[in-house]
């Protein structure tokens, strides 16, 4: 999971994106804010998508919005307690390299 700041019709938006282990895009979301509410909405949408499966690990950058959103989804039983959130910038290299096409 990753996000990048983009301009859409002259307005700034955060583009959240999730990819699987093969680099295929699972889902994306444009949001005006980069906060825990947007992160939770994106996680929820991605987990409810037809082409999505329950992840074993979620890799994300070190933004502070991810842990509360992730914990809330585990409390809501959308994610099992065994699913791990790994926050490390270098683990998102596959997504970071793909940003140049956005």
Please, what is the CATH homologous superfamily?
Answer: Ribonuclease H-like superfamily/Ribonuclease H
Q: Tell me the number of strands.
A: 5
Gap from first CA to last CA: 15 Å
Question: How much helical structure, as a percent, in the residues?
Answer: 25-40%
The name CATH uses for the topology is Nucleotidyltransferase, domain 5
Provide the residue-averaged pLDDT.
Answer: 82
Structural class, please? alpha+beta
Radius of gyration: 13 Å
Estimate the strand proportion: 25-35%
Number of domains: 1
General shape: globular
Q: Would you state the CATH class? A: Alpha Beta
Low-confidence stretches: none
> What topology, given as strand order, has the largest sheet?
1-2-3
Largest sheet: 3 strands, antiparallel
Q: How many helices in DSSP terms?
A: 3
Question: What is the gist of this entry?
Answer:
The chain has 102 residues and is of the alpha+beta class.
């Amino acid at each position: 999971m990753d996000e990048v700041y983009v301009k859409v019709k002259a307005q700034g938006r955060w583009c959240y994106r999730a990819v699987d282990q093969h680099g295929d895009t699972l889902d994306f979301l444009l949001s005006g804010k980069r906060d825990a509410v947007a992160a939770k909405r994106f996680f929820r949408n991605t987990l409810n998508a037809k082409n999505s499966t329950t992840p074993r690990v979620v890799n994300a950058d070190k933004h502070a919005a991810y842990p509360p959103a992730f914990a809330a989804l585990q409390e809501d039983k959308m994610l099992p307690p065994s699913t791990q959130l790994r926050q490390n910038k270098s683990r998102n290299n596959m997504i970071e390299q793909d940003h140049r096409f956005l």
